[in-house]
Amino acid sequence: MAKVKTRYVCQNCGYINPKWLGKCPECLQWNTFEEEVEEKISSKTKALANVGGSINSKPVKINSITIDREERFSTKIPELDRVLGNGIIPGSLVLVGGDPGIGKSTLLLQVSNNISETGKKVLYISGEESENQIKMRAKRLNINSDNLLIYTENNLAAIEIVVSDIKPDVIVVDSVQTMINPEINSAPGTVSQIKEATSKFMKISKQNGISTFIVGHVTKEGALAGPKILEHMVDTVLYFEGERYNTYRILRAVKNRFGSTNELGVFEMKSDGLVELENPSKILISEKPVDVSGSVIVSTVEGTRSMLLELQALVATTNFGYPRRTTTGVDNNRVALILAVLEKVVGMQIQNQDVFVNIIGGLRINEPSMDLGIALAIASSFRNIPIDASVAVTGEIGLTGEVRTVSFIEKRISECEKLGFKKMVIPRGNYIEEFKKDYKMELIPVSNIRQAIFEVLGR
Questions:
Q1: Is 296 exposed, middle or buried (0-12, 13-18, 19+ CB in 10 A)?
Q2: Cross-strand bridge partners of residue 125
Q3: Are the C-beta atoms of residues 343 and 351 closer than 8 Å to each other?
Q4: In angstroms, rounded to a whole number, what is the distance separating the alpha carbons of residues 201 and 176?
Q5: Which of 49, 105, 291, 452 has its CA 20 to 30 A from that of 7?
Q6: What is the pLDDT of residue 1?
Q7: 84 pLDDT exceeds 60?
Q8: Of 35-39, 250-254, 332-336, which range is least confident?
C-alpha cells in the first residue's frame, strides 16, 4: 500500500517544503504555502511508470528510425497556420496564453468552428463559462456547426470518459487553471492541479492522436500562471499580445516543436470576432500624419514577414528634476542606449528633456532594426524638423554610433517599394550596386547615425 505524507507547496513559484513556512525562501512571498497530500510511490513502480509500464524497451540506432510524413491540417485561418508552422500536427499539445479579454476564447471558438466544418469532430471543454454563455458568443460569431460539441466540465475524470466515448479529432480546453483532479487535495489553479491537468491532456493527446489546444491564464506580470514546467510539457506555446483597448492583436510563438518561433500573426478585433490582417503594413501606416516632427516609418521583419510600422517620438523640456523616459511597444533600455549615443556622438543635449517613444497600433517589437527609426524620430522631434512621409528607414545602431547591417534587406526593400515609398535609408553594409537595377526607389546607404540624420533631416 502506498505511503501517504503531507508536503507544503508555494502557490507562487512551486517551491516544496516538508513544513509550513510563513515566507517562501525562493520567491520571498508571504503566506503562499498550501498543504498537499503526496503519495509515496515505490522505486520499482516509478521505474515502470517512467518506461510506460514496460521494461522491454531498448535503445535503437538513429539511422534505423523511420519518419512518417507530417500530415498537418489547416485551421482555415492563414495567420494562425503561419504561427503554428503551416497547420496543426495530429496529437500536438498547444498552449495559448494572453491577458484577460485579449481574444483567446474567441479565436479558439472560431478555430473550432472552421475545423468542424471540414468534417472533423471538435470537443470544446469549458470550465469557466456555461453552455448559454458559449452559445451567445457563437451566435455573435455566426458559428453553428453540427460537429462542434460543447462540454462544460472541469472534472478530469469525467472529461477523460467523455473523450473516450466521443473520440474527437480536436480538443479545446478553456482553461487549464479551472481543471481539477478530485484525487488531489488542493484547489483548482494550484501548482499540483495544473501539472496534473496538463499531464492528463498530454497523455490523451499523444495516445489517441488528438490535437489539443489549452488556454492558460497569465499573471499581472504577463507570464503564464502556474509552474514553468507547464510550458516545458506542451509542444507549442502561443502568446496573444496587444493593448486590450486597441483593436490590433499579435499572436506570437515562443516555443514550437513543429515550426519556427519567429513567426507572428496579426489580427484585428471586430464585432464578429478576430479578423486576420493579410497586409498589416498598409493598415498600420495609413494614418501617419504629414509634416509633423517626430514621426517615421520603420521597416521590421518578424519571421518571414516584412512589416512597416509608424514610430513616434516626443521630446519636450522636463518640468521635473529628473527627466522621464516613457516607451510603449519598444524596449525601454534600448531607448536609453540610443539617447546616450545621440548625446555622446551627435551632441544633442537631451539630458534635460522628457522623451516619449511609441509604436502606433499597440504592437510590441524588439527587433534591433528599430534602432535607426527610434534615433531619427527623437532627433526629428528634438529639432522640430518633419521627416518626409515618403521615406522609410531600417538599421541597428552600435554604441559608437555606427549603423549596422540588418537581415532580410531585400524583403524590406520590396515591401517599401510595394507600398509606394520613394526613398529608404539602409545600412551601408547591406547596400550592393545591383539594387539600382532591381529597385526603382532611391536607396540611401548610411554608415553612422550622424550621416543618417543629415540625409533625413538635412542638418
A1: buried
A2: 151, 173
A3: yes
A4: 10
A5: 49
A6: 43
A7: yes
A8: 35-39
3-state helix, strand, coil in the chain (%, to 5): 30, 30, 40
pLDDT at residue 270, rounded to an integer = 87
Amino acid (one-letter) located at 87: G
DSSP 325: E
Look up cell 529628473; give the residue.
322
- For the segment 154-160, the average pLDDT, to the nearest whole number, is 94
What pairing do the DSSP bridges indicate for beta strands 33-40 and 3-10?
antiparallel
Give 72-76 contacts, CB < 8 A, sequence gap 24+.
73/115, 73/118, 73/120, 75/111, 75/114, 75/115, 76/111, 76/114, 76/115, 76/117, 76/118
Residue 64 DSSP symbol: G
- Tell me the backbone φ, ψ of residue 307, rounded to 5 degrees: -130, 145
- Percent pLDDT > 70 in the chain is 93
pLDDT score of 2 = 46
| pLDDT: which is higher, 18 or 78 | 78
Q: How far apart are CA 270 and CA 357, in angstroms?
A: 27
| Residue 52: band (very low, low, confident or very high) from pLDDT cuts 50, 70, 90 | very low
Q: How far apart are CA 239 and CA 237, in angstroms?
A: 7
The pTM (predicted TM-score) of the whole model is 0.74
> Residues 327-334: what's their mean pLDDT?
92
